Amino acid sequence: MVDTYFEPRISNDTKAFWEGCKEKKLIFQKCKDCGYIRWPAAYTCPECLSTEYKYIEVPSKGRIYSYVKFCYAFDPSIEERLPYYVAVIDLDCGVTMLSNIIDTPEEKIKCGAPVVCVWEDKSETPRPTFRVEG
Fold this sequence. Notes:
By secondary structure, the protein is mainly beta. It has one helix at 15-22; strands spanning 26-31, 37-38, 53-58, 61-70, 84-91, 96-101, 114-120, 127-132. It is globular, with a radius of gyration of 16 Å. The two termini are 29 Å apart.
């Protein structure tokens, strides 16, 4: 099933990230001047205001910083996924991102739990989601 309701809105800033997702890689901007890895992508570095950057692939591991369990669907297209978990993930590279926790028993989902990226292919563009390791 293709879930068109959740197709990303791709901009010039986010294009490299979503192209990386198609190859199942996490791609972020890295400032050429100060080395800050940033997400979301932006024209200037929030640390040093440089406009110089390159794209890098980062390891797909991290830890759950915080999470919430959704028991009610905000849209009928996701009722079959209930309950589902949305988490703030601190990636090992220093980037913090919002994503889903999947394929994990509820008792293993907790703050500080180690996670690894798994790619959800329910739409045209694979999405980085995470599962608890171990």
